[in-house]
Specification:
Blueprint: H1 5-18, H2 22-30, H3 35-62, H4 69-116, H5 126-139, H6 141-166, H7 172-175, H8 187-192, H9 200-206, H10 211-237, H11 248-254, H12 258-266, H13 269-302, H14 308-328, H15 332-362, H16 375-397, H17 404-416, H18 419-426
C-alpha cells in the first residue's frame, strides 16, 4: 500500500485540533460516575460529534468557494443564523481562552512552589503566560506555529512518560465503581474534547474536495483522540479515589485537573514534575491556537487594521476579559470548560450543523456531491440531543439541577455513614 502523506497530514490535523487541555478535566468531570459510565459518555460523544462533523462537511461542500462557519450559517440559515454563529463562536473562544489562562495560572504557581518553596499570590501565575506566550500570539501565526511545534513534542513525551509512571498504580476495584446518575456532571466538559469542526473548511481545500480522503481524515482523526482519552481515563480513574483529599470530588469542587490530582496522590517527585509539565504543555498548546483564532476573529469582525495600535487593541480585547474572569473565580478552569462545552461546542458544532443541513437539504435543495447518512431521523436526534445538553447545563447553572456544592454536601452526609468504604478508597 502506497504511503499517503496528505492523508496522514489531514488525520494529524484533526487529531491535533481535537486533543488539548480539555482532556485534563475529563477524569474530574466524569470520575464521580466511574470508568464504565465514562466510556459510554466518551463513545456516545464521539459518535455524536463525528456525525455532526460529517454534517459540517456536507454543508461545506455545498459552497462553491472556500468559506468559514459564519458564512456557511449565513448561506443556509440567513442573517439570523450568521449572527447566532458569530456570537456563539466568540463566546466559545473567550470561554476556552479563560479556561486555559486559569489552568496555566494554577500550574505555574504549583511549579514555583514545588521548586522554590515560595507561595505566591493567586494573580501572579497569569503573568508568565501573558508576557511570554501571549507575545507569540501578538506576533502572529508564524511565531505561534514555530513555538507550538516544540510544545507538541514536549506534550507527546510527557504524555508517554505519564502513562509509563502511572500504569503500575492502577487499582482494579476503583475501575469497577459505577454511578450512572452522575454522568450529567461531565456532559458539557466532554463536549469540548471532541471539537475539531472549525478546520473542516481548511481540510476541504487541503484535499481539493476529495470526499473519500476527507471522510477518512475525519473518521480516523477523531478516533485517535477517543483512544487517547479512554486510556487516560483508565489510568486516572484507576488511581484517583472518589472522595477524600486529592479525590475526584475534591478536584471537581476546587476546579483542579486530573494530572495534578495524580501527582499529589502518588507523591513521586519525578511523576509530579512530569504531570505538571504535561498539564502545562497541554494547556499552552491549546491556548496558543484558541487565542490566535480569537484575535484573528476579532480582527476580521471588527475590521481592525494591521497597524501597531490596531494590534495592541486586539491584544487587549483578546486577553484582558479572560484575565479578569480568571482573577474573580477560583474554579474558573472547569466552569469555563463547562460553559464552552454546553453553550459553545454543542450549539456551534452540534445544533447548527444539523439545522444548516435540514435547511439546505429540505428547503433550499442545494446541489451536493456528498450527503451525510441518517436522513431526517438522524438530524432530528442530533437537534434533540443538542437541546438536551444545553437544557441540562442551564438547569445546573440556574440551580434546578444539583451543583458541585450540592454534590459535596450529599457525599459528606454519605461519608459519615460509610467510613469503612471511604477509607478504603483513600488509602
Amino acid at each position: 500500500m502506497r504511503f499517503n502523506s496528505r492523508l496522514v497530514g489531514g488525520i494529524l490535523l484533526v487529531s491535533g485540533t481535537t486533543i488539548g487541555a480539555g482532556m485534563l478535566a475529563l477524569p474530574v468531570s466524569t470520575g464521580m460516575a466511574g470508568f464504565v459510565p465514562s466510556l459510554f459518555l466518551l463513545i456516545g460523544y464521539w459518535i455524536f460529534m463525528t456525525f455532526t462533523a460529517f454534517l459540517m462537511l456536507e454543508v461545506n461542500l455545498w459552497m462553491d468557494r472556500p468559506t468559514n462557519l459564519v458564512s456557511m450559517a449565513g448561506a443556509t440559515l440567513g442573517k439570523g443564523g450568521a449572527a447566532v454563529s458569530w456570537i456563539t463562536y466568540l463566546f466559545l473562544l473567550y470561554s476556552l481562552t479563560t479556561a486555559y489562562i486559569a489552568g496555566c495560572d494554577a500550574i505555574i504557581q504549583d511549579l514555583i512552589s514545588a521548586t522554590t518553596g515560595w507561595i505566591l499570590p493567586s494573580w501572579i501565575g497569569t503573568f508568565p503566560l501573558m508576557l511570554l506566550f501571549a507575545f507569540f500570539v501578538y506576533k502572529g501565526t508564524r511565531s505561534v506555529d514555530l513555538v507550538n511545534r516544540l510544545l507538541m513534542i514536549g506534550l507527546a513525551i510527557s504524555y508517554v512518560m505519564m502513562l509509563i509512571f502511572v500504569a503500575p498504580y492502577v487499582k482494579p476495584y476503583l475501575l469497577k465503581q459505577q454511578e450512572f446518575r452522575y454522568l450529567w456532571l461531565g456532559i458539557s466538559v466532554v463536549a469540548t474534547s471532541f471539537g475539531f469542526h472549525i478546520i473542516i473548511p481548511s481540510l476541504t481545500v487541503y484535499f481539493n474536495r476529495d470526499i473519500r480522503q476527507l471522510k477518512k481524515a475525519i473518521f480516523i482523526g477523531s478516533l485517535i483522540p477517543l483512544v487517547v482519552y479512554i486510556l487516560w481515563e483508565f489510568l486516572a480513574l484507576g488511581i484517583i479515589p472518589k472522595q477524600g483529599p486529592n479525590s475526584i470530588l475534591d478536584g471537581y469542587i476546587q476546579g483542579a485537573n486530573g494530572a495534578s490530582l495524580l501527582s499529589n496522590l502518588l507523591g513521586s517527585y519525578t511523576l509530579a514534575m512530569t504531570a505538571r509539565f504535561f498539564s502545562l504543555f497541554a494547556i499552552i498548546t491549546s491556548f496558543l491556537g484558541v487565542s490566535l483564532s480569537l484575535m484573528d476573529f476579532l480582527e476580521d469582525g471588527l475590521r481592525v487594521g494591521k497597524t501597531r495600535s490596531g494590534r495592541l487593541l486586539l491584544f487587549a480585547l483578546t486577553f484582558f476579559p479572560p484575565v479578569l474572569f480568571t482573577l474573580t473565580n477560583p474554579r474558573v478552569f472547569l466552569s469555563a470548560l463547562e460553559y464552552a462545552g454546553a453553550f459553545g461546542v454543542v450549539v456551534l458544532l452540534g445544533l447548527l450543523p444539523a439545522l444548516m443541513v435540514w435547511r439546505g437539504r429540505y428547503h433550499k435543495s442545494f446541489a451536493t456531491t456528498y450527503t451525510a447518512p441518517g436522513g431526517k431521523i438522524a438530524l432530528a436526534l442530533t437537534i434533540a440531543v443538542s437541546l438536551a445538553v444545553i437544557g441540562v447545563e442551564i438547569a445546573i447553572k440556574t440551580g434546578f439541577a444539583p451543583s458541585a456544592w450540592n454534590l459535596s454536601m450529599q457525599n459528606t452526609t454519605r461519608n459519615s455513614s460509610a467510613a469503612p468504604y471511604d477509607s478504603e478508597l483513600t488509602s
